[in-house]
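debug: dumping io for the single-chain case to check the tokenizer round-trip. Nothing else runs in this session.
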Amino acid sequence: MIAASRFDNRHVILPTRYLACVDYYAMLAAYPSATIETGNRFDKRRKETHRTVIADANGTINLTIPIEKPVSLTQARWDDIVISSHGKWWNVHLTALKSAYGRTPFFEYYLDDFLPFYTSECAGMRLTEYNSRLDALLRRLLYIDTEMSAPGKDIATDNFSQCNLPSLDAVEYYQVRNLRYGFIPSLSVVDLLFNMGPESQIILHEMTGNHEPIQI
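debug: decoded output
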């Protein structure tokens, strides 16, 4: 397990993500300051930038936001990428979230916060702007107080913007279908949020070895 002291006085750069996994937010919560990188060169193979994984009654499923093909595949960066209206994806994703988490303890409590992100108005937005707004909501609901800023010049920086996140030890938490599938790690952080509510931050801190008392 990664020791909490590793993150003291450090700054982390993380890649932009759509409803990023629990591990991503555990990393984010562990650092005193962070930057979400949006200007990396576009790579269509990096599906995780606009795809998330949730679990419903049939197991894990991928939810992918369709994107418009950029004018130049070689010159485009992620902050040039625009969300498509293909397949009315916002309806598909919202229906999937309701099906997967409608019976969890906290879904109804948080639902209204997420509804603005699942309308036709989201088509045409820049993907990184959409991800950023959704990330800001998630950090608020998860009580993550990491300072979001540009990388500092006088502090050590961990940069995960161009690579996969390091593996963290899974910390099991209540999932509504535990008895059927057992615990499923590394799902979207909304799985944690809808199942655990305000106690989600306890799980995030435990994943990086931080056992300090947390005020909820």
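debug: round-trip ok. DSSP finds seven helices and six strands in the chain.
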